[in-house]
Amino acid sequence: MNKLIHPTKALPVLAMTAGVLAVYPRLVCRRYRILSRRIHTPFRLAVLSDLHASWYGAGQTELLRRLVKEQPDGVLLAGDMGPDWRPADNLRELLTSLSNRYPIFYVSGNHEIRSGRSRSVKTLMLEFGVSVLEGNTRILRKGMDRIQICGVDDPEVDFFFSGPSWMQQLHSCSDAREEEIFSVLLSHRPELFSFYAKENFDLVVCGHAHGGQVRIPGLLNGLYAPNQGFFPSHAGGFYRKGNTAMIVSRGLAKNCIPRICNPPEFLVIDILPAPERMFLAQRTGEVVDSLL
To answer: Which of 11, 139, 244, 253 has its CA at a distance of 20 to 30 angstroms from the CA of residue 183?
Structure first.
């Protein structure tokens, strides 16, 4: 006969289990929808950010299996995908599988530039046919429809290279943008949202904030984020300013700094036709924000 466990003995085990799940949460897929009259064909974009060369199983199978199931039309890499100092084997494994399946677009992150590995990471990206965006624009086509994918280096480029400044790159993207075509700006840092909105991009996709590391869903959307400090205003999720929407990924990093109630994530963004210009962001069935 099985013996019943007394509640007072079970509570410590349950508390320990909940603590482990909170600090070491599993990978999640976070979904958003953007509706716009600028397109007639649905586009699905997958967003990977702040991998920091983390390991998701042999050949990155845990991440790849989940992503392939979503069948995206393109994949956006929003910076800090490579390691600071370690070999880039995990990133290479990811690119090996992704590059044969999807168009991929990449912008640099602050860690890649600060560590001096930006050029080597970009070279690796180019080896796999990834579009490296440095103030330029690419067209993603689906059937007879198309969207514009623009991208800028992380602003740390201003301190480490003598090439075009971050602001010059941003203006170049804005100047190259065709007004009648839906535009996506890929940029690492969300705290510069006011600059993006002034250029009237339809959608901005960022990373960098790591979800604020510590979250209390419904109460605290991030405790601390780089370049934003404590209680960051753009730690992760959907934001809107004027006619520009911004979606911030909480990233894929699994490192020595614990993520509490803040699971690593990749994003799936569906850009859908709408009868009038509006934005609707949806996450796991719950409407987050909308603009009619």
So the answer is: 253
